[in-house]
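Structure first, sequence second, as always.
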């Protein structure tokens, strides 16, 4: 049956979908919309495509080329398979295969199995995990098995309606340009699904292997080797510190349980309602521990009932880690990603010194994304390490780590403020399982050696390296044209044309009466940086996302950027004090005032109908 939408292009896309899609449910979705003449909705679903972005593919699960479904997954796998064979044409390279993993969301296993069939049909061997795994186990397997690529089917902490397709390259780091663009091009050249791509009988092939037992055993052996043996024996074993753990309805629990066993840590008390994979995420509004106390209600209740003083929580695919600690007054403090980054950065150096006391730190590196706290930079400056800043996202930090390791350098730690931590380069991506093990070991170490809490240690680090306070949050904006308008206005608040990097006219100050003077502006959308002699940013720029950083005369740094995976405008603010400066409350108050001013004056939430984060 042919449909006439009044658009030749849409008619063609409807016909293609109904011809290609072998999934009865999503095919019927599109057919039903066409029969009801829902042309506008069909245009949104069929005239645009999901494209490789910050995290590969990510979108709502429904029919249409602009969503996650069987057909789009098959098309994506076909494009990736063709591109891999272009990059690695020899039979020997092809035999290295690809690794596939999946989380506990709806359709994750099916999407992984369909992808496996595409690669098997292309005569590429497949390592398909036989059960749900934490995301870090895919890049770990790419590295250890020397695979051509890895795919993790997950939407991380997105709502239950979503799923995603995260791709790792041969170096085991997430894909970056030009691979993301080239894969997208290859997908567009291979849209028609081959008939065998739908044939799940290919899963019986002798070229399909389950790496689960081998990789899990190796992962935990390497994790234990990264924790100093003296710390395990003297501080973890028999420690009085007690932990509550939440898997946030995801896949993390068996891996964190095993991590604690291998490091002789006290067993975690898991929140029973959130321990096992549940694609409904039924106890939380957002399955994201980055949301703070609102996501940790059940964890705090269990900790209060059982006398546990620390809470550890992963996101559903267990590549991020949140932590809360009960203070002397019985109140819970949820640490920010920046605070945990400071603690784990210090801890990485402490572990390295314990294991290699005779080695210099001069070839060691700490890495952070540009919107994360500069605390690791301060630590590196005082302690004689190197610090490197990258663009936002672990794909940049993972690939930078690959470069440094190839040069013979030692990468101790990398982090982003969105509670992502790479404690050692065993996995060249954020890893919430190893981070949980290290943070718990740190807590036991501090209790045994100095009777300190994590908060006590953080304050001590501020005394040594300078107080760093941060504020991060976001506003929802569901209309891309509004986002464009907001950032165009910011670039023209001084009256310039705003078309090129040289005639940008950004604000010169914010606050009442222009109280807070702006010293420099860096715009990684246009590539402009007023602090550079030639006015060009050092970090790569991209017109596909918005990102402007303001450096103020008083030492504050505030970045406004759009999210690569969610309809948000985010802000990241930090005040960096010098070692010995003690007016911490004053620094916090000033930063709060500056953030309120920049949101009101630059984002204009009321005029632009922005929805603030609900805590």
């Amino acid at each position: 049956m042919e449909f006439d939408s009044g658009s030749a292009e849409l008619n063609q896309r409807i016909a293609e979908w109904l011809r290609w899609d072998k999934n009865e449910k999503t095919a019927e979705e599109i057919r039903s919309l066409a029969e009801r003449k829902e042309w506008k909705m069909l245009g949104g679903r069929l005239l645009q495509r999901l494209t490789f972005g910050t995290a590969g593919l990510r979108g709502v699960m429904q029919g249409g080329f602009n969503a996650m479904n069987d057909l789009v997954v098959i098309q994506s796998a076909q494009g990736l398979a063709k591109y891999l064979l272009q990059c690695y044409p020899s039979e020997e390279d092809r035999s290295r295969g690809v690794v596939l993993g999946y989380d506990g969301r709806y359709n994750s296993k099916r999407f992984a199995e369909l992808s496996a069939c595409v690669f098997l049909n292309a005569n590429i061997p497949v390592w398909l995990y036989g059960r749900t795994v934490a995301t870090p186990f895919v890049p770990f397997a790419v590295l250890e098995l020397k695979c051509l690529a890895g795919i993790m089917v997950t939407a991380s902490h997105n709502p239950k309606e979503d799923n995603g397709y995260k791709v790792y390259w041969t170096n085991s780091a997430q894909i970056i340009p030009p691979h993301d663009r080239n894969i997208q091009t290859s997908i567009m050249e291979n849209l028609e699904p081959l008939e065998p791509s739908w044939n799940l009988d290919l899963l019986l092939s002798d070229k399909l292997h389950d790496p689960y037992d081998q990789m899990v055993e190796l992962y935990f052996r390497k994790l234990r080797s990264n924790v100093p043996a003296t710390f395990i024996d003297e501080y973890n074993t028999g420690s009085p510190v007690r932990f509550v753990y939440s898997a946030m309805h995801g896949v993390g629990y068996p891996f964190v349980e095993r991590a604690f066993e291998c490091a002789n840590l006290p067993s975690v008390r898991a929140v029973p309602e959130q321990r096992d994979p549940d694609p409904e995420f039924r106890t939380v509004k957002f399955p994201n521990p980055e949301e703070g106390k609102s996501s940790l209600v059940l964890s705090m209740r269990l900790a209060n009932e059982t006398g546990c003083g620390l809470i550890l929580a992963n996101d559903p695919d267990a590549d991020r880690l949140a932590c809360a600690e009960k203070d002397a007054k019985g109140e819970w403090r949820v640490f920010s990603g920046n605070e945990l980054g400071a603690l784990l950065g210090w801890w990485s150096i402490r572990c390295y010194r314990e294991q290699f006391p005779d080695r210099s730190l001069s070839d060691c590196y700490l890495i952070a994304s540009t919107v994360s706290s500069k605390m690791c930079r301060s630590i590196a400056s005082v302690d004689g390490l190197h610090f490197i800043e990258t663009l936002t996202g672990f794909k940049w930090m993972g690939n930078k780590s690959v470069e440094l390791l190839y040069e013979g350098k030692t990468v101790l730690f990398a982090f982003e403020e969105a509670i992502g931590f790479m404690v050692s380069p065993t996995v060249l991506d954020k890893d919430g399982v190893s981070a949980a093990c290290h943070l718990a070991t740190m807590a036991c170490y501090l209790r045994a050696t100095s009777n300190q809490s994590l908060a006590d240690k953080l304050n001590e680090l501020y005394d040594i390296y300078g107080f760093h306070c941060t504020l991060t949050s976001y506003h929802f904006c569901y209309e891309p044209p509004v986002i464009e308008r907001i950032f165009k206005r910011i670039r023209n608040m001084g009256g310039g044309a705003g078309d090129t990097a040289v005639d940008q006219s950004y604000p010169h100050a914010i606050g009442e009466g222009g109280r807070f003077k702006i010293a420099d502006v860096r715009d990684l959308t246009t590539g402009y940086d007023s602090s550079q002699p030639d006015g060009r940013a050092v970090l790569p720029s991209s017109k596909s996302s918005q990102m402007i950083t303001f450096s103020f005369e008083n030492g504050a740094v505030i970045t406004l950027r759009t999210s690569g995976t969610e309809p948000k405008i985010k802000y990241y603010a930090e005040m960096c004090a010098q070692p010995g400066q003690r007016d911490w409350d004053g620094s916090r108050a000033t930063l709060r005032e500056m953030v309120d001013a920049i949101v009101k004056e630059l984002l204009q939430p009321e005029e632009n109908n922005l929805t603030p984060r609900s805590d």
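Margin note: The radius of gyration is 25 Å.
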